[in-house]
Specification:
- By secondary structure, the protein is mainly α.
- Helix content is 72%, strand content 0%.
- The radius of gyration is 21 Å and the shape is elongated.
């Protein structure tokens, strides 16, 4: 089954290219499976077909969860954009959590030969869709400063911060570095060969990403409360240009 994820908003609604892929439907393949291809290759019995139908229904629910996380407009503040990014990652995690039980039940019902055929279909789908998982790979790599629009050096030069504000900015800088270390340490490319293994690895990576985003978000929220109104306007402009 190719679930049509559609477009819940135009490209300008997303704070990053990876978020845009989630909202534009390019996250297709994250939790949906080609049900008819699987059925054709696996030749399920009646019990297995019932479990495959449950997997199809779970895939539809997962796509709806991801679409609902897409906002109608671009947040105007860096805190809003980071919150929107977190919302998308959280939606991806919830989508995986919806599909995993149904996938595990179906996979466990298969014989060894049927499993091999299912794995072949899944791997063929991944090879045919290079963007599958690209949004996760993009979020897993690099520095959350860039992804959340937080050019620390430029902020420090432009805002003319007082001592307390500088301390807050240093804390924010450290939080982004700590977040990057979390991702580098645990958010590794998926090497799983089976569909359940691939989804389990994806769930683990998404949980790490949420923890990293929470670390940065907490420090950003604290710092964002300290500038004056004029400084906030400058901060917002800098973060928009950087994102």
């Amino acid at each position: 089954m190719d679930v049509d994820t559609g477009a819940a908003g135009n490209g300008s609604t997303a704070p990053s290219a990876s978020s845009e892929r989630i909202c534009s439907g390019q996250a297709k393949g994250l939790t949906d499976f080609s049900i008819q291809k699987i059925a054709d290759q696996v030749q399920p019995n009646q019990n297995q077909q019932d479990l495959l139908n449950a997997l199809k229904a779970a895939s539809v629910r997962a796509v709806d969860i991801m679409q609902q996380a897409c906002p109608g407009e671009l947040p105007s503040t860096p805190t809003g954009r980071l919150a929107a990014m977190r919302s998308r990652v959280d939606a991806m995690l919830k989508a995986v959590e919806v599909v995993r039980p149904a996938l595990d039940k179906f996979y466990q019902s298969l014989s060894d030969e049927q499993r091999e055929r299912f794995i072949a279909v899944d791997q063929g789908e991944q090879a045919g869709l290079p963007q599958r998982g690209a949004d996760i790979n993009d979020l897993c790599q690099g520095d959350l400063r860039t992804k959340s629009g937080l050019p620390i050096d430029r902020i420090e030069r432009t805002l003319h911060l007082n001592t307390d504000q500088e301390m807050g900015l240093r804390s924010l800088d450290q939080a982004t570095l700590d977040s990057a270390k979390m991702l580098q340490a645990k958010c590794q490319p998926d090497q799983s060969l089976t569909p359940p293994g691939r989804l389990a690895a994806m769930e683990d990576r998404l949980r790490v990403m949420l923890k990293a985003l929470d670390t940065t978000q907490s420090a950003l929220t604290k710092f964002y409360g300290s500038p004056s109104d004029e400084q906030k306007v400058q901060f917002d402009r800098i973060s928009v240009r950087a994102s």
